Amino acid sequence: MRWPWSSSKTEKDKQSLVSSDNFPIATDWSHYRDPRNIIPVVVLTGSVFLVSTFYRSYLKRVPQAINIDPGFWRKRSLLGKVTSVGDADNFRIYHTPGGRLAGWGLLPWRRVPVTTKELRDKTIHIRIAGVDAPEMAHFGNPAQPFSREAFDFLKSYILHRPVRVYVHKRDQYDRAVGTVYVRKWLLRRDVGLQMLKRGLATVYEAKSGAEFGGLEAKYRTAEKWAKLRRKGMWGGSMKSHESPREYKTRTAAQAK
Length: 256
Known about the structure:
By secondary structure, the chain is of the alpha+beta class. It is built from 7 helices and 8 strands; from the N terminus they run ααββαββαβββαβαα.
């Protein structure tokens, strides 16, 4: 019999309150240190990191020149299909990273758009490095001799073809200045060099900012031989010859 003033808890209840079940148990971390658990986590994390890095470096599409990673300039190249030729020394490409190995042209979701609407803001404007082609008519100025021939050659040589561009820098017009290569009968051809050999361009002349990708000597030799053989623009009288640089300087002065 309990007295009214006695505690309602029995001795057994008191013992249960101080039992180990009522105190937190220290976490057992031993299984976290088990190599059988650590190794798979490390391997999975490393694999995800490597795949992500590889994708960003080699398979991520670059829509425009302004989106080219700073680490690409003078170190990397871009593979793409030429979608349009705007002038005799510049054109646009749709970047196709990985080419056919990545499924471009083979898989339904890896196709190059064809309409102007689809291509808007999705192409990289390329300026061929180290060369200057005759200027076509624009801004009310007449075309230079051989500007049409140079334009037609470039268009027939690269339009709708895959090209590889070794990018050097971005110019003031947000174009990627680069050395351009195209495959012809399994041989890789330097597009700028081919234009120089045919007398359809001159070596780029500027007080500063000229980019040659280490090929300036080769380009000047090609221009020299084109002059000696009177190829293209070098076939007429040298007294009346006006280089693209001289033409641009003259027309700019007249516009002032």
